[in-house]
Design a protein that fits this description.
This protein is α/β, with parallel strands linked by helices. The chain contains eleven helices and 15 strands. 38% of the residues lie in helices and 17% in strands. It is globular and about 55 Å long.
Length: 330
């Protein structure tokens, strides 16, 4: 998906990851609707980025408000991309000094982070599916923001981890369903980022999260997140052949990025033009299996330009006979 001259919606575009993503889109010649609940910060970012980045006050949990943001984007041309960055990150223990976890704060976190994300996806997907494909055959790209907390949540993150785990869980079924419309669905699961949301956490929570970063010993920067969004959008720069990018510290070899940890082996980014067949280790056997063989396990393709991809821990009966008793976790 080329960014130049195309139209995108970025939720949470008034600050943090969303603002950095919107800035990247404008710098690459695209148009972006800043959808954010905070009118003051949203208007400030819009003034900074200029006429190609209008601000639309948006509550992602409300259907009418989300529809207004999508409609505002449609006025500038066919909607080609949605980047969901809106979210909250409360810190609250299940059993705290003041009593049990407040049910209303748990429900609010799920409503914004999970339901709000899905609300924007369904409306944007509807708009994208009815448009004509662009030159590369795509109709649109949807990028969600999860969190490493979906896999490695800490004390006080029960609500946040649950909401982001939901975003991760729905990525694959959404990617499968929307692939027939030539719409890609991706999710980025960042680690600890320098965002207003994280800076709003209690000091002790920030300190605890900071100690988790092995190297480099710092938080991620919003501009780095935006750079990954840029790479995902533009398939001319790289091929993204899986639906979830777990943003940890990957190992790079021969044009392939993978995460050696079993819980985050879902990442596989293969650059075009490589002659060697990318391979991935099997956690169970320690052997390496060509991605070509791994692709035969998944038995599906989003659409021809992406090639086939494998589904995590999925082995059909016929493949089980061919592979023997080994069950590959991909």
């Amino acid at each position: 998906m080329k960014i130049a001259s195309n139209v995108f919606v970025v939720t949470g575009g008034g600050s943090g990851l969303g603002a950095a993503t919107a800035r990247m889109i404008v710098e690459n010649g695209g148009k972006v609707v800043l959808a954010d609940l905070n009118e003051e910060s949203g208007a400030e970012v819009a003034d900074t980025l200029g006429p190609n980045a209008p601000f639309v006050a948006t509550d992602v949990t409300t259907e009418s408000s989300a529809k207004a943001a999508v409609a505002a984007a449609a006025e500038k041309g066919p909607l080609r991309g949605l980047v969901n960055c809106a979210g909250i990150a409360p810190a609250e223990k299940v059993v705290g000094k003041s009593g049990p976890h407040r049910l209303e704060s748990y429900a609010r976190t799920i409503q914004i982070n999970l339901v709000g994300t899905f609300n924007m996806i369904r409306l944007a997907a509807q708009a994208m599916s009815s448009s004509e494909p662009e030159s590369q055959g795509e109709r649109g790209v949807i990028i969600n923001t999860a969190s490493v907390a979906a896999y490695d949540g800490q004390i006080g993150q029960a609500a946040y981890a649950a909401s982001k785990g939901g975003v991760v869980a729905m990525t694959l079924p959404l990617a499968r369903e929307l692939s027939r419309f030539s719409i890609r669905v991706m999710t980025i699961a960042p680690g600890i980022m320098e965002t207003p949301m994280l800076m709003g956490m209690p000091a002790e929570v920030q300190e605890s999260l900071g100690k988790m970063v092995p190297f480099p010993p710092r938080m991620g920067r919003p501009a780095e997140f935006a750079k990954l969004v840029e790479q995902i959008l533009d398939m001319a720069k790289c091929w993204i052949i899986c639906s979830l990018t777990a943003w940890r510290t990957p190992t790079s070899k021969k044009g392939v990025l993978w995460e050696p940890s079993p819980r985050t082996v879902l990442t596989a980014t293969a650059s075009p033009g490589r002659n060697r067949t990318p391979t991935r280790p099997s956690p169970q056997s320690g052997r390496r299996m060509p991605l070509k063989l791994a692709s035969s396990i998944g038995k599906w393709s989003p659409y021809p330009c992406l090639g086939r991809r494998a589904t995590s821990s999925f082995v059909t009966t016929s493949n089980r006979r061919r592979l023997g008793s080994t069950k590959y976790q991909l």
